[in-house]
Amino acid sequence: MKNFIVLDINHGGDILSSILKDRGYNVIAYDIYQTRNDKRELLLQKNIKTITTLDKDYKDYIVVYPIHCPEYFLSFFPDSKKITHHELVKFLFYKNVNKNKIIEITGSKGKTTTSYVLSYLLSFNETVYLNSSRGFERLIKGRSEIIKSENSITPANTAKILSQMEDGLYVFEESLGVSGIGDVSILTSMDPIYQIKNGASNSFEAKKQIFSLSEGKIIVDGSDKKLRNIVDNSEKEIFQIWKDVSIEIPDKLEIGKNIESTLMWKEKESKVQFRGDYLITGYINSILFGALTLKILNINQDKISKYFSVFKGVENRQTVFQEKDYTKIIDKSGGFSEDSLRYLLSNLMNYYDMPYKSINLLIDLSNNSHCQKIKLEDIDKVIGEFNNFIDNAFVKGTHNFERFKYLRDSEELNIKKGDLLIESGKG
């Protein structure tokens, strides 16, 4: 019998320990940060030994760790075999699930939107269960029902859902790589690259495990130069958006108006009318990932065009609302940053007509987490880059506004007839 010691119950180690115990393995949970008394108590109730410090040499144990785990903790096991949480999920489920019913999606940006777009399209053919940053939801013929709003996109949560699979197709958004259990794996983006393991590694190194763990088809962004060498030298079956499928949209767009577009495949072109309920420029890659996946799954291109024609966007992801006297755009996500704000404003400035009397930006950081803290000074600098485009910029909350050059108190916001309001931030 294999012995496992699972690190970091803060990031799913408790879930994986429970699954290993249920499978009959000898398992120890290691609370490396010594902060989760609540989870340790639950593990003890399942007769799972939980430790906060090492009391002996565990060289006969397989060490299971999250891919972002600092090397400091791994150095305590110099002679032990080590696998990541992602690799453990593959070990536990690869031979025990229907791989044709699983799609995994990872990337630094765009993975939540891509996972929803893809799930929406697939739901016209069968019931889809989606686990993403939005929550765990069921989609049937384009309609979504949130089953659980509080969840995570760790490999451990993927394992928990796989342990309770029902009939249907499962789409998993996953952080820092995929587990390789699905028929299709999607890498939405490598940028931005950020440090993990206390600076000893980075997100690029973590996400490229998709090329080693995935046994099925892999889809990447063909325009990503950072991936070119990996793709060219890989023996895996790899498809690429912008090469296997691309899209043409008009040079200038109107906010809130439907868009006549063309999906271009190697063998044919498909006309598509996209709705104006969302800013299509923020969805381009997600649309292509969705279209290419459906093509790989042998879904007719004409059906793909039909499904896109009724798609209304992802809630609060660059969605458009026509209010009584003004137009509103909402773009809120957990991945909000100065870069995402810059991307949104650049798209609006470069691709859309702006017949508005005043363009107002409202920043909301009420959901700003400690692990991804946004500095308002950085947001203020981004607004300065678009000073000739944004007329007024506001932020919710109590702040020392004297330190900002452009941001003002949201209490001063006064939307008038014919204005555009852009609401952005954490959500």
From TrEMBL:
Gene Ontology MF annotations: ATP binding
InterPro entries for this protein: Mur-like_cat_sf
Highest taxon in the source lineage: Archaea
Organism lineage: Archaea, Methanobacteriati, Methanobacteriota, Stenosarchaea group, Candidatus Methanofastidiosia
Name by which UniProt lists this protein: UDP-N-acetylmuramoyl-L-alanyl-D-glutamate synthetase
Organism: Candidatus Methanofastidiosum methylothiophilum
